Amino acid sequence: xxxLDRILAQESFGLDDLETLLSLEDPDERARLxxxxxxxxxxxxxxVVHLRGLIEITNVCARDCLYCGIRQGNDALDRYEVDEDExxxxxxxxxxxxxGSAVLQGGERCxxxxxxxxxxxxxxxxxFAEGGLGVTLSLGEQSEDTLRRWRRAGAQRxxxxxxxxxxxxxxxxxxxxxxxxxxxxxxxxxxxxxxxxGTGVMIxxxxxxxxxxxxxxxxxxxxxxxxxGMGPFIPHEDTPMADxxxxxxxxRGEQLxxxxxxxxxxxxxxxxxxIASTTALQALAPDGRERGLRAGANILMPNLTxxxxxxxxxxxxxxxxxxxxxxxxxxxxQRSVVAIGETIGYHQLGTSPRYLxxxx
Length: 360
Ligand code: SF4
Hints:
Blueprint (H helix, E strand, L loop, with lengths): L2 H6 L6 H8 L4 H18 L3 E4 L1 E6 L25 H13 L4 E6 L5 H18 L4 E5 L5 H9 L4 E3 L7 H7 L6 H13 L3 E4 L2 E2 L6 H14 L3 E2 L2 E2 L15 H23 L3 E2 L3 H6 L3 H7 L4 E2 L6 H4 L15 H14 L3 E2 L8 H7 L1
Parallel strand pairs: 1-11, 1-12, 2-3, 3-4, 4-5, 5-6, 6-8, 7-9, 8-10
Helix pairs in contact: 2-9, 3-10, 4-5, 9-10
Iron/sulfur cluster binds next to loops.
């Protein structure tokens, strides 16, 4: 048994262990890490992938995160907000397909009209699904009043990415009015409001070290999150961070590898949570999402946003599937799942085993 085997055989992992795992460079050693995480996934959540129908409801955002293609300061973008009826129809389509859950994602907006719009959509979704469609919101930091209203209207899950737990790095990639402690407070508020809580980080940021990522994994463990949604950093040309990694094609492969190693480490440490294999992985390699599943992820998010809006919702460059309609997106994901010998959990909420165990 070599040093890597000894680490992978452990039941719990410290900062040094994770830093070692996240620093692996040898392809065979990385494959052993993925395989160990995959075994944990099979044991804890089984060979079942759950689908979350992703609806990108608006690219209007009041924030100015330096890495993000839909930041308020990007004037090169036509802004949209999907009509309420269309959002409900897309969610209904997900329900009819047996997806079990949908995600409403958009820019961060706190205006009263937007809060009402989301509340009405949630109520209408409950009208046809009667609680049988799990709804995740990913709409940034919100007030307690808003979070409670949306929870009462039917949202069960909320994804709020911390992006990085290195405070200096957080400050470097956000605008001056964005505060790490406020993000953290909102994350804690989500649990108090009764949501299943998700968070995640950006992987491969300029200046980010394996030790930073190891701390990110331990942060997710300490926050006892139910869901993880994270992905490699891919620069967007209309942002201040466009050239922050130099020639991106030179680091593309390594960004993918880092993303996969993080999925594997989160699976090893958090074990029974839901982990998304995100589109950013597919943007880096055609089989990126499948590789994410093989590294320990168990959630896929077919994009249900109408194709006429998709070009306007690019958080990073090279996002795949811009012209692919919902049916084509879904068929592609189904093929991905079958190709790795797993099945899709249709007509299941896909609640994370961790949440169910905590609730008892
Ligand atoms: S990351 Fe989120 S909050 Fe930041 S600019 Fe993009 S959509 Fe807005």
